[in-house]
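REQUEST ID: PR-0412
SUBMITTED BY: lab tech R.K.
PRIORITY: routine
TASK: structure prediction, single protein chain
INPUT:
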Amino acid sequence: MLLFVRAGLSGVQISSLFAIWSISSAVLELPTGLWADRVSRRRLLALAPVLTAACFALWTVVPCYPAFAVGFVLWGAGDALRSGCVQALVYTELTRIGSPGAYRRLIGRSEAVSGAAVMTATALAGPVLAVGGYRAVGAASVAVALLGVPIGWSFPASAPPPEPASAAAGRGTGPAGQASPRPSYPAVLRVGLGQVRHTPRAGRAVLLVAVITGVGALEEYVPLLARSTGLGPTAVPLSVLVVTAGLTVGGWLAGRGDRWAAPVLAAGAGCLAVGAASGRPAGLALVAVAFGIFQWAIAGADTRLQELITDEARATVTSVAGLGREGVATLTFAGYATAAPWVAPGSIFAGAAVAYLLAALAMRPPGGRHRSRRTHHTQDGRGSYGGTRKRRVRTRRRRSRGSGR
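STATUS: complete
OUTPUT:
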């Protein structure tokens, strides 16, 4: 953000760069999701950091608006490669070893580690900037981004999922009577969109992930919110650090208290509205709490989505949610850019709390808590209540036959 301001960019131009970032991610989201369901997901995770590093290198060498725009396209492409791919790989491997329940905790803590890394980078940015200027910061950013290559390659080399039976039936079988083990792009797309449309609650889960994560793009404007409270240039990074700390704590606590997701998310919306509208530096503490709650809720919503879909098109369906996220993020950036000339940042942040409140209302189970317990679906799609009832019927039948003998 400070690099853009130093280059003379206005608030509208900065928002347009964020919009370019989201649009490029959105355009590539679904194609890269389909790709991740057909090739080695580990290779894609190793390739993504290279594109991000290229973005930072371009910004360092040519710090102007066109270079910033091209850099955000590269960064968006890297984000699209990761989006859906990492979630699908982690959930699939956890299921393979019999520990799918660990997904929520692991994905939340990965975000917490990411937040801790951002805090560390923020703390080091000042000294590095003072010693070597923006070029030193840019070089360090490139080096850190490239560290993601060996990290991505360290993931398990999971094979692409086999072709769905329905798609294979429509396409035919091979010479030996067996379907090809690698599905075609149209087959994966049909299966993925079919799961979104026809799997119970999957469509709602996709929408919730898109809204909760997409409106979170407002985090990019926290420096402007902090500056509007009267904080000086040296204090603004510290306020951003506080909000990032909230995100980190929220990610680390993922998997705890999930039964209270709706009321907690509503409370987070209240914290965002009150803290941002206060117009005081102390209100940023409530903003940090709010973003921590949002991060916690994102892990829960993502987990519910993964539980409702299958591995045949897991990355594709997750990328559909990512596509929605980028669409919501683009609307968020556009909304901020439109309102910024006339509305204070605090009021814009407070208005965004309405979206989280609506998401909290949508997370409430239909028919209340008792009904949701009776109709809870397991991984294989059978209701736990219905399964228990069937077992009891079978038990009574066996007992009646035994008494007859």
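NOTES: The CA atoms of residues 307 and 379 lie 6 Å apart.
REVIEWED BY: pending
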